[in-house]
Amino acid sequence: MDKESIRGKLKELYDSFVEKYGNLNKTKNRNIINKDSYGFTVLASLEKRIGSDWFPSDILTRSNKVENEEPRTSSVSEALAYTLAMKGYIDMSMIERITDMEPELIISELGDLVYYNPMQDYWEESSKWNSGNIYSKIAQCEFMLAEVMNDKNSVYLEKFDITDDEITRAFKKLHNKQNEND
Length: 182
Fold this sequence. Notes:
Layout: H1 3-21, H2 27-33, H3 39-46, E1 47-50, E2 53-56, H4 76-87, H5 92-99, H6 103-110, E3 114-117, E4 122-125, H7 126-129, H8 134-150, H9 155-160, H10 164-181
Antiparallel strand pairs: 1-2, 3-4
Protein backbone atom coordinates (compact mmCIF):
# COMPACT_ATOMS: atom_id res chain seq x y z
CA MET A 1 0.00 0.00 0.00
CA ASP A 2 1.36 3.43 -0.89
CA LYS A 3 1.26 6.43 1.46
CA GLU A 4 -1.76 8.03 -0.19
CA SER A 5 -3.76 4.79 0.12
CA ILE A 6 -2.82 4.54 3.80
CA ARG A 7 -3.76 8.20 4.32
CA GLY A 8 -7.12 7.59 2.57
CA LYS A 9 -7.85 4.54 4.75
CA LEU A 10 -6.92 6.47 7.92
CA LYS A 11 -9.23 9.32 6.85
CA GLU A 12 -12.08 6.82 6.26
CA LEU A 13 -11.57 5.35 9.74
CA TYR A 14 -11.45 8.85 11.27
CA ASP A 15 -14.66 9.90 9.47
CA SER A 16 -16.39 6.70 10.56
CA PHE A 17 -15.35 7.26 14.19
CA VAL A 18 -16.45 10.92 14.15
CA GLU A 19 -19.80 10.00 12.60
CA LYS A 20 -20.45 7.40 15.30
CA TYR A 21 -18.89 9.01 18.42
CA GLY A 22 -18.13 12.64 17.59
CA ASN A 23 -14.79 14.40 17.29
CA LEU A 24 -11.78 12.84 18.98
CA ASN A 25 -11.43 15.95 21.14
CA LYS A 26 -15.03 15.77 22.38
CA THR A 27 -14.73 15.64 26.18
CA LYS A 28 -15.91 12.02 26.53
CA ASN A 29 -13.61 10.77 23.71
CA ARG A 30 -10.65 12.86 24.89
CA ASN A 31 -10.91 11.42 28.42
CA ILE A 32 -10.88 7.87 27.05
CA ILE A 33 -8.08 8.50 24.53
CA ASN A 34 -5.89 10.30 27.09
CA LYS A 35 -5.84 7.17 29.26
CA ASP A 36 -3.50 5.66 26.66
CA SER A 37 0.16 6.62 27.01
CA TYR A 38 0.12 8.09 23.49
CA GLY A 39 -3.33 9.62 23.83
CA PHE A 40 -2.26 13.24 23.73
CA THR A 41 -0.06 12.56 20.70
CA VAL A 42 -2.98 10.92 18.88
CA LEU A 43 -5.27 13.85 19.63
CA ALA A 44 -2.70 16.46 18.66
CA SER A 45 -1.79 14.73 15.42
CA LEU A 46 -5.24 13.78 14.13
CA GLU A 47 -7.34 16.85 14.87
CA LYS A 48 -6.79 20.59 14.79
CA ARG A 49 -8.89 23.30 16.37
CA ILE A 50 -10.09 26.22 14.33
CA GLY A 51 -12.07 28.62 16.47
CA SER A 52 -14.26 26.46 18.68
CA ASP A 53 -14.57 23.61 16.15
CA TRP A 54 -12.40 20.54 15.55
CA PHE A 55 -11.33 19.39 12.08
CA PRO A 56 -9.21 16.57 10.68
CA SER A 57 -5.54 17.55 10.75
CA ASP A 58 -3.62 18.03 7.53
CA ILE A 59 -1.98 14.61 7.84
CA LEU A 60 -5.37 13.05 7.10
CA THR A 61 -5.93 15.06 3.93
CA ARG A 62 -2.55 15.72 2.34
CA SER A 63 1.14 15.06 2.59
CA ASN A 64 3.01 17.38 4.93
CA LYS A 65 6.30 16.68 3.23
CA VAL A 66 8.02 19.86 2.17
CA GLU A 67 9.93 19.58 -1.06
CA ASN A 68 13.16 21.53 -0.74
CA GLU A 69 14.34 22.80 -4.05
CA GLU A 70 17.98 23.66 -4.18
CA PRO A 71 18.46 27.39 -4.45
CA ARG A 72 20.31 28.96 -7.34
CA THR A 73 23.04 31.51 -6.68
CA SER A 74 26.19 32.87 -8.24
CA SER A 75 27.77 33.21 -4.79
CA VAL A 76 30.02 30.27 -4.02
CA SER A 77 30.14 31.19 -0.31
CA GLU A 78 26.30 31.13 -0.16
CA ALA A 79 26.31 27.72 -1.85
CA LEU A 80 28.92 26.51 0.66
CA ALA A 81 26.78 27.72 3.57
CA TYR A 82 23.73 26.01 2.09
CA THR A 83 25.46 22.66 1.61
CA LEU A 84 26.86 22.78 5.15
CA ALA A 85 23.42 23.59 6.55
CA MET A 86 21.62 20.90 4.55
CA LYS A 87 24.17 18.09 4.72
CA GLY A 88 26.60 18.96 7.49
CA TYR A 89 29.57 18.57 5.18
CA ILE A 90 30.95 20.12 1.99
CA ASP A 91 29.28 18.59 -1.04
CA MET A 92 31.11 19.95 -4.08
CA SER A 93 28.63 18.41 -6.53
CA MET A 94 25.79 20.25 -4.78
CA ILE A 95 27.76 23.51 -4.91
CA GLU A 96 28.31 22.90 -8.64
CA ARG A 97 24.55 22.44 -9.18
CA ILE A 98 23.60 25.48 -7.09
CA THR A 99 26.11 27.82 -8.73
CA ASP A 100 26.27 26.21 -12.19
CA MET A 101 30.05 26.70 -12.05
CA GLU A 102 32.95 24.44 -12.90
CA PRO A 103 34.79 22.81 -9.95
CA GLU A 104 38.03 24.68 -10.65
CA LEU A 105 36.27 28.06 -10.42
CA ILE A 106 34.46 27.02 -7.22
CA ILE A 107 37.72 25.95 -5.57
CA SER A 108 39.40 29.14 -6.67
CA GLU A 109 36.59 31.33 -5.32
CA LEU A 110 36.43 29.46 -2.01
CA GLY A 111 40.15 30.05 -1.54
CA ASP A 112 41.27 29.29 2.02
CA LEU A 113 37.74 28.50 3.25
CA VAL A 114 38.07 24.84 2.21
CA TYR A 115 40.82 22.27 1.71
CA TYR A 116 40.84 18.90 0.07
CA ASN A 117 41.72 16.15 2.52
CA PRO A 118 43.51 13.62 0.33
CA MET A 119 43.66 11.04 3.11
CA GLN A 120 39.86 10.99 3.51
CA ASP A 121 38.92 11.90 -0.08
CA TYR A 122 36.66 14.83 0.78
CA TRP A 123 36.67 18.58 1.20
CA GLU A 124 36.87 20.13 4.66
CA GLU A 125 36.37 23.55 6.13
CA SER A 126 39.74 25.14 6.85
CA SER A 127 39.05 25.13 10.60
CA LYS A 128 38.64 21.34 10.53
CA TRP A 129 41.64 20.86 8.23
CA ASN A 130 43.83 22.92 10.56
CA SER A 131 42.82 21.01 13.67
CA GLY A 132 43.76 17.62 15.02
CA ASN A 133 47.13 15.97 14.57
CA ILE A 134 48.64 18.20 11.90
CA TYR A 135 52.01 16.39 12.14
CA SER A 136 50.35 13.17 11.02
CA LYS A 137 48.50 15.02 8.25
CA ILE A 138 51.77 16.58 7.08
CA ALA A 139 53.48 13.18 6.97
CA GLN A 140 50.60 11.68 4.99
CA CYS A 141 50.50 14.63 2.59
CA GLU A 142 54.28 14.45 2.12
CA PHE A 143 54.00 10.76 1.25
CA MET A 144 51.14 11.35 -1.18
CA LEU A 145 52.83 14.38 -2.73
CA ALA A 146 56.08 12.45 -3.25
CA GLU A 147 54.11 9.63 -4.86
CA VAL A 148 52.33 12.07 -7.17
CA MET A 149 55.51 13.96 -8.07
CA ASN A 150 57.29 10.71 -8.94
CA ASP A 151 54.40 9.22 -10.87
CA LYS A 152 51.86 11.44 -12.60
CA ASN A 153 49.72 8.33 -13.06
CA SER A 154 49.69 7.84 -9.31
CA VAL A 155 46.96 5.80 -7.73
CA TYR A 156 46.12 8.85 -5.60
CA LEU A 157 45.35 11.01 -8.60
CA GLU A 158 43.25 8.26 -10.15
CA LYS A 159 41.47 7.23 -6.97
CA PHE A 160 40.66 10.69 -5.71
CA ASP A 161 40.44 12.57 -9.02
CA ILE A 162 42.52 15.40 -7.61
CA THR A 163 45.46 17.39 -8.83
CA ASP A 164 48.89 17.59 -7.28
CA ASP A 165 48.19 21.33 -6.87
CA GLU A 166 45.39 20.54 -4.44
CA ILE A 167 47.61 18.23 -2.39
CA THR A 168 50.39 20.84 -2.43
CA ARG A 169 48.00 23.58 -1.30
CA ALA A 170 46.72 21.44 1.58
CA PHE A 171 50.30 20.49 2.51
CA LYS A 172 51.43 24.14 2.55
CA LYS A 173 48.51 25.11 4.75
CA LEU A 174 49.43 22.40 7.27
CA HIS A 175 53.09 23.42 7.19
CA ASN A 176 52.14 27.04 7.91
CA LYS A 177 49.96 25.89 10.79
CA GLN A 178 52.81 23.74 12.16
CA ASN A 179 55.18 26.73 12.05
CA GLU A 180 52.63 28.83 13.97
CA ASN A 181 52.48 26.16 16.68
CA ASP A 182 56.27 25.70 16.98
